[in-house]
Specification:
With about 190 residues, this protein is an alpha/beta fold. It has a single domain, classed as Rossmann fold (3-Layer(aba) Sandwich). It is built from eight helices and six strands. The longest helix is centred in the middle third of the chain and has 16 residues. The two termini are about 30 Å apart.
Length: about 190
């Protein structure tokens, strides 16, 4: 398989209590909700059609459990570069709460005090992309909303701040590939049910 035929499944973990409430969930290791588990299981028939050369997951339980419930847990290697954005002082609070003291704040532009900058998370995304591009075959990545939004931006050779332009819900199907040698998005934020 040529690189321009490579397929990369991008899978955000299933729903959590904090994702339901809009709380920034970076390093806090919380489980999936029952609905999150149900959504993860919907991935099984889609992913069962592929033979994966590489499966990577964030070390956080919400990503690892999504990977396991989708049927790829036994093939997965943990990659700390797929950890969610470290929100520092903004961990566990909502954008609305942040905007009360910092109007106009956006993680993709501003990063988080005591956490990561857009440049730092972009560098982590670049390391994952380099690993993916070194493999021949189909790849699956299980991770989190903001890191995956930065990853798609970097896949397309856009700055990490462009992650703001890619909405990504829990329980969706996303595929990166190539178009005539150029990195491309094949499917993005497609619901599974």
């Amino acid at each position: 398989m040529e690189n321009n035929e490579q397929i990369v499944y991008i899978i955000r973990h299933g729903e959590t209590e904090w994702s339901l409430n809009g709380q920034h969930t970076g390093v806090t290791d919380i489980p999936l909700t029952e609905n999150g588990r149900t959504l993860a299981k919907l991935l099984q028939p889609v992913l069962a059609k592929e033979s994966f050369a590489l499966v990577l997951t964030s070390p956080l339980q919400r990503a690892r459990e999504t990977c396991k419930l989708s049927g790829l847990g036994d093939q997965a290697d943990v990659d700390t570069n797929l950890m969610e954005w470290n929100y520092g002082e903004y961990e566990g609070i909502t954008s609305r709460q942040i905007h009360e003291t910092v109007p106009g704040w956006l993680v993709f532009n501003d990063g988080a005090p005591g956490g990561e900058t857009p440049e730092q998370i972009g560098a982590r995304a670049d390391r994952v992309i380099a690993k993916v591009r070194s493999v021949r075959g189909v790849v699956a990545l299980f991770a989190h909303g903001h890191i995956l939004r930065v990853l798609v931006a970097r896949w397309l050779d856009l700055p990490a701040t462009a992650g703001r332009n890619f909405l990504l819900d829990t329980g969706t199907l996303n595929i990166l590939s190539y178009y005539r040698g150029y990195p491309a998005v094949k499917t993005w934020n497609a619901p599974l049910k």
